[in-house]
Amino acid sequence: MNLEFIKDEALRQRTEDSIEYLYTLYEESKGDDKNDLYRTETYRVIILYTVSIIEALLFYIYERKGVVIMKIEHKERITLPNSYKNKTVGGKICVLVEKTTEKTESEISLRELVNFLEKKKVLKKATVKKLLNLIQTRNSVHLRQKSETICNIQSVEKALDLLAYVLIQAPRHLK
User: Fold this and answer.
1) Where in the chain are all domains bearing CATH 1.20.120?
2) CA-based end-to-end distance of the chain
3) The model scores a pTM over 0.85
4) Which end of the chain has fewer CB atoms < 10 Å from its terminal CB, N or C?
5) What are phi and psi of 99, to 5 degrees?
6) What's the sign of the alpha-carbon dihedral 58, 63, 69, 71?
7) Assigned CATH for 9-67+106-174
8) 7: which DSSP letter?
């Protein structure tokens, strides 16, 4: 797969290496000498890694598009004396400065990024649906999740198909 559309050489190399690693894991998981636990754990790693690659690509597109996700921050908060109480909800009354600033990449969740790119007409509704399903699958296979979701070959192949689709479509969003 040609990744020349990724102008950041370090990102391109990490992406190429990660895709090669995924392919190796996928092929190794097919071996007759592998037990079910090995396959399930390998599939889990493939899904986690696949989502990580897609996330990096989407953030790269986001950055190159020059669009930003904003947040509202509250600064210089002043609480009025106790004699000023809100009679409807109760509680203290405060005065503050509201400031809109750009979210940093670490403040943007993948789900938020996907939805934002859909609103900006970068991602199609069908692609967004697939991405959100993959994110849900990824979230269900984290070690801390109490979900009984088991990774299988079908979920891995859907994830890899989506990765291939994103890689094929990405260059057109960078023009």
Assistant:
1) 9-67+106-174
2) 19
3) yes
4) C
5) -130, 135
6) positive
7) 1.20.120
8) -
Which residues are CB-neighbours of 122 under 8 A, at least 6 positions away? 61, 65, 173
CA 13 to mean position of chain CA atoms: 20
Q: Minimal CA–CA distance to 133: which of 146, 145, 149, 144?
A: 149
C-alpha to C-alpha distance for 23 and 17, rounded to whole angstroms: 10
Encode pLDDT of 82-97 as tens digits: 888 888 888 888 999 9
Given a contact cutoff of 8 angstroms between Cβ atoms, the answer to whether 54 and 165 are in contact is no
- Angle CA(50)–CA(21)–CA(3) in degrees, nearest 5? 70
- Token pair 């689709």 is at which residue? 165
Contact (CB, 8 A) for 57 and 167: yes
Per-residue pLDDT, 139: 87
Residue that has been written with the tokens 């990744």 in this structure = 3
Contact in structure between 29 and 43 (CB atoms under 8 Å): yes
pLDDT average, residue stretch 23-43: 93
